[in-house]
Amino acid sequence: MLNYRKARSKWENYWFKTFHRWRSCPLTCAIEKPHHRHIFWSWFGSFLAISICAYLTVKTNSPFLMAPFGATSVLIFGVPDSPLAQPRNVIGGNFLAALVSLTILHFFGSSPMAMGMAVSLAIGIMQLTGTVHPPSGAVALVVMMTKPDWQFIMTPTFEGSMLLVLCAVIFNNLAEERTYPKHWL
User: Could you count the other beta carbons within 10 Å of the beta carbon of residue 77?
Assistant: First the structure.
C-alpha cells in the first residue's frame, strides 16, 4: 500500500533540492578569484603540460585524448585543492578508464551500448577505488571511438597522466600560498 504522506514528502523534498537551493546561492554568487600569481602559474604550467602531452598524443596518433587531458589540466591547475584533481585520481582514474574501456571494446565492440557500458563501468570502478576523475569518462569514450591497441593504456594515457601530474607538482608549488598535491594516495 502506498503511503500518501511519505510519497508526498519525498516529492516535495525532490523539488526543494532541485529548485530552492538556488535561492541560498544564486548563479550570481561570487566565486573566489585566485590571485594573479596563481593565475600566471596555472597558465604557464598548463601551457607546458598540454604542449608536452600534445606531442605524446601526436606521436601515438591519439589526438582525441587531448580533450580529457585539457579537462584534467583545468582541474589540476585551476582548482588544485579539489579531491578530483589529486594524483591518485588523475593517474588512477585515467588508467582504470582506459583499461575498462579497452576490455569492453575487445569483448563487445564499439556500439552505443558498449560506449555506455564503458563509461558507466569506469565510473563505478573509480568510485570503488577512490579514484574518481571526471575527465576519465572522456578517456573511456576516446578509447571506444578510436579503437586503439592495448598499448594505449601506457602511452599516451598513463604517461600523459604522469606528465600532467609532474607539471602540476612543479608549477603549483612555485606559488607561495599554493600546495599540490593535498595527498598522494
Answer: 26
